[in-house]
Write a structure and sequence with these properties.
1% strand; 23 helices; sodium transport; two-stranded antiparallel sheet; single chain; antiporter activity; Sodium:proton antiporter; sodium; 480 residues; mainly alpha
Length: 480
């Protein structure tokens, strides 16, 4: 029985971007073959190493990239030995195309976030909150609210780290406040990312996939009907935790930090880039990544302007020289270099994404996703299946979970597609290891924000999870 449960969980999280039809009708069902069993074992081992990253310090991209190569080499060998020499290649190319679109999209977004970070945008916000001298309870709500509204534009990881820095700066030795505030930040950041196409990789995948439903396509504006359910997902546990937050007034400290020249204009360019991506998708029917890369050109030209005019930053006391030296590369003193920002992108995350797509694309090509789709979306029904997807995302990364659903393409209404978008986005809040924000904060607030500390408040978070599902089904009933 335990083996069957494990197999069910494993199959349910097998993502994949491979189309069965890519093999031109020669797709072989290898779900009961040793190739299929070996592929599952390789992927399971790789993912165990990913989950143990905190203890082994082995970057999560390494095992999945290796597993991807091994799985597809077995598939290619088996197909070639039976006279099919192009089917596996076609499937891999399809995987690579989908990965390339998402990777380049995320790379542009990360570059803008890094540029704003280098221009002290986030540091200025953090210092402003610190010097204001807010009380613990007020700061609890302010950091949660900011996390909720920043994460739809920036990624939830950057948002959570920024807000956690504020909490640590004012929390001092008050471990109870730090724990509760960190839990609140994780929940708020994940909830905020669920109602925006830019807020999380899972919502981005659904938007770029442009899923066809009986009510139409899940377009850019459609995601915002999840605003109220996402807000409920955060407010319910936050309201419960509020009474446990110490009602104390910490001393104000620190000094204000000014943003560097061009910071506000980079923020405007980022917003303009988002508008460009949406316009390319909605009006020109082009992939959003083309609009994002066009937006990267905005930053490149503005970076060129900053380089040519860096002397304006000099104030006569040497501060500009310090900044220029910090940003220099290969001995050239420059005020801004966009390629430095690209180099600072989360390459481990991007390569992990590649490994996941290729790994489970192979498993989908072997036939496992069709079995999972039958079990979850036909036998259980879409509502229960989508709730389970959210619960699974608390155990494993929500990226492979959502890839599984997108690849299976179950026949669902618009409301159900939005439901799985919501649950995959917020389900990771149930455990501290369920999202990138939670894992990062365990390292940033080591010893004060812990797995078991988060687990203690899991019932309150689960109540918010259930309430958000109920609210979505209620207020968006016309979409089901």
């Amino acid at each position: 029985m335990h083996a069957l449960k494990f197999l069910f969980v494993l199959l349910a999280v097998l993502p994949g971007a491979a189309l069965a039809a890519a093999s031109g009708g020669h797709n072989m069902d290898l779900t009961s073959h040793w190739v299929g069993y070996t592929a599952i074992a390789i992927f399971a081992l790789a993912y165990l190493l990913v989950m143990a990253e905190e203890f082994t310090h082995l970057r999560k991209s390494k095992p999945v990239i290796l597993a991807a190569g091994l799985i597809w080499s077995m598939i290619a060998w088996y197909y070639a030995s039976h006279g099919f020499t192009t089917e596996a290649e076609a499937a891999v190319r399809h995987n690579l195309l989908e990965y390339a679109e998402l990777m380049l999209f995320l790379l542009v977004a990360m570059t803008y976030i890094n540029a704003m970070d280098e221009r002290n945008v986030f540091e200025a916000l953090r210092s402003w909150l610190v010097v204001r001298g807010f009380g613990f309870r007020k700061l609890f709500w302010i950091t949660g609210l900011l996390a909720f509204f920043i994460s739809p534009v920036a990624d939830n990881l950057t948002t959570a780290l920024l807000m956690c820095a504020v909490v640590l700066a004012v929390g001092g030795s008050n471990s109870k406040f730090i724990l509760l505030a960190c839990i609140n930040i994780v929940v708020a950041a994940n909830a905020g990312g669920a109602f925006s196409p830019f807020g999380d990789i899972t919502t981005l995948m659904v938007w770029q996939k442009a899923i066809e439903t009986p009510q139409g396509v899940v377009g850019f504006g459609t995601f915002f009907v999840l605003f109220v359910p996402s807000m409920v997902n955060w407010l319910v546990p936050a309201s419960i935790m509020h009474f446990a937050v110490p009602n104390e007034q910490p001393g104000a400290g620190g000094k204000a930090v000014a943003m560097k020249r061009g910071a506000r204009r980079i923020i405007v360019l980022f917003l303009l880039t988002i508008v460009t991506a949406v316009s390319f998708h909605n009006f020109l029917h082009m992939p959003p990544v083309v609009g994002m890369l066009t937006g990267l050109a905005y930053l490149q030209f503005f970076g060129f302007f900053l380089k040519k005019t860096y002397h304006r930053e000099s104030n006569g006391n040497g501060e500009a020289a310090i900044e220029l030296e910090h940003d220099s590369q290969m001995g050239d003193l420059v005020a801004f270099d966009v390629f430095n920002k690209i180099a600072r992108a989360e390459w481990d995350t991007l390569l992990f994404f590649y490994g996941v797509v290729l790994c489970v694309g192979g498993l989908g090509f072997l036939g496992y996703l069709s079995l999972t789709s039958e079990l979850m979306y036909v036998q259980l029904g879409p509502t229960y299946a989508n709730v389970i997807v959210g619960l699974l995302s608390a155990i494993v990364d929500n990226i492979p979970v959502m890839f599984a659903v997108l690849t299976m393409q179950p026949d669902m209404s618009m409301g159900q597609w939005l439901l799985v978008t919501l649950t995959a986005g917020v389900g990771g809040s149930l455990l501290s290891i369920g999202s990138a924000a939670g894992v990062a904060l365990m390292g940033q607030a080591r010893g004060r924000y812990t797995f078991f500390g988060h687990l203690k408040w899991a019932p309150a978070i689960a109540l918010g999870y259930a309430a958000s599902i109920y609210v979505h089904i209620w207020i968006n009933s016309a979409l089901f």
